[in-house]
Design a protein that fits this description.
This protein has 217 residues and is mainly beta. The chain folds into two domains: 90 residues, no CATH class; 88 residues, no CATH class. Helices cover 5% and strands 24% of the residues. The protein has one helix and eleven strands. The strands form two sheets. Strands 5-6-7-8-9-10-11 form a seven-stranded mixed sheet, with no helix packed on it. Strands 1-2-3-4 form a four-stranded antiparallel sheet, with no helix packed on it. The relative contact order is 0.05.
Amino acid sequence: MPSYDRITGDYFLETLRDNSGSANFTITVDEGRGQVLINGNLVVAGVFSRVESVQTLIYDNFITLNADAQGIWPYEDAGIEVARGLLPNVSLTWNEQIDWWQFTNDGYTYWKMLRFIKDDPDPHLGGHLYTDCYEIRSSDPCNIILTPGWTGAEANAAIQITHTYSPTANVAYVEGATVLYGMDVGNGQSGLYITDKKARKEELITKRRALVYSLVL
């Protein structure tokens, strides 16, 4: 049968140290199988809290760290740390000095979490870059290739930007693509050349030169 104790006002329970210097307070419910329910706010004032459980369920949508910083200028970092035994701990940390989220995978080096691509001063891709229409990739020697997308019936036209080592290089045609590259400025005065299915090593002319040609012809 349940039993109830009702009191009026505050209720204090204090333990005093015994001869061994210990003064613990333990609640055991059904040999550790039951629940302890607190219908009210729980305030724990101590050096640290330790939770030993297989699974912890938290119903709150947000967890606030550094809650005592309200009303003062922030100066303490905060985050979540994972202990890894003999290996260094890893963490996700808000760095108050630089106003940025950081993370570490080795416990020593901290990396900024990107907010925008421009935040990365030295971006690198581990493979090809796929967009909605084109696959952008590179190949030796320092060429940029836009691979055709698919319209549902046929491949879209593609542009391949090619690096040339020689001003007299004869860039080969690439099936289904227009190859764009730079060389010495010729009569067209643009220095920008194309090679496609019908044109080979033809220089794109400038607007001014095109006007002169139109008057001559």
